[in-house]
User: Fold this.
Amino acid sequence: MAPLSTPPSDTGLVERVQAIQPLLREHALRTEQERRVTGEAVAALTDAGVYRMNVPRRYGGYQSRLSTQVEVLGEIAAGCGSTGFMALNQAGCSYIAALFPDEAQDEIFTSPDVRIGGTLIPDAVAVATDGGYVVNGTSAFATGCQNADWHLLTARVESDGGLPEVLWTAVPMSDLEILDDWYVSGLAGSGSNSVVARDVFVPAHRVLPVGALLRGESASKANADDPFYRMPVLLLFCAWTAPNALGLARAALAEFTERIHHRGITYTFHERQYEAGVTHLQVAEAALKISCAELLTGEFVARIEAATKNGDPSYTQADRARIRAQSGYTTRLCKEAVDLIASASGASSLHRDVPVQRAVRDLHALSLHSFVNPTTNLELYGRVLAGLDAGTPFL
Assistant:
């Protein structure tokens, strides 16, 4: 059952998340050391109502505006990048779960605070059987799996001579084994371990073809005509991932502007870093990079919201490629800002209890993610601008 303190709407959700930000920041080092988000942080997110943002209202969810979600996820990431990454993954997977057949939703959304993880890497194999599929295989990068109730496991159905069909299968976490293999340098506390399915039976109503989803088709009758659930899923993941970069960069800038009042620049005559001209150049450039990233994010989020509000969720290939490129460029700008801040923070910032070094590693890891990878996303957009097909269905 949801905690009694969980509010019945998303009014004030941003403020509630801001209130728990000090706890997330306090737990950031422990989260990294334990390689998973702490139970206290998960409870705080639950009490704030974070897990309800994409849950259908008929199950007690909020169906929060995308701009609200972006703001919320940015505030979480400002407290802890790993916690923010887990939150965005589970927010996105709740949205996908709402596209499954209604019978599956009745099983999944037994609480509006249900935690759902998932991956879009079809390493597992599904074999058709009476009434559904039997799934076997290992799926990597199952973010937040230790704290999840359900997992949307991507599996492929092999075919003779043709391309395999890719399915999202909704599986209770109790049916999966979690491997202890998440030993990484960035987003180390996100708990993105591999999960293993061993002869897991998935009934047909808990299966969603990925191809249909990419075409904007929903298996849910209850949500089929709701504009909220007609937004392009992959573009939404760009929108959910970008604030992770923004939150990390904003927090690093805030920490830097506080630290420069308490340290000098070693082997120079500057006894206070904030008085040095080089510091003024560094902090101004970092701040403007972050501002540009905020403007880019705000622009494409507003475009998605406007299309949803007008009841016209159709997008040209150029629209989709541009949004992916903007999310990637946002991540690049934030990474550049934090790299600049880190280079100006001195050797003392290398200590694990100083947040800026963690922000550097987290942003490096985030920039490698396919949804916001700057190089890949810019190439896709450049192909479209040059008059070519984007070369991928993942738009």
Q: What stands out?
A: DSSP finds twelve helices and eight strands in the chain.
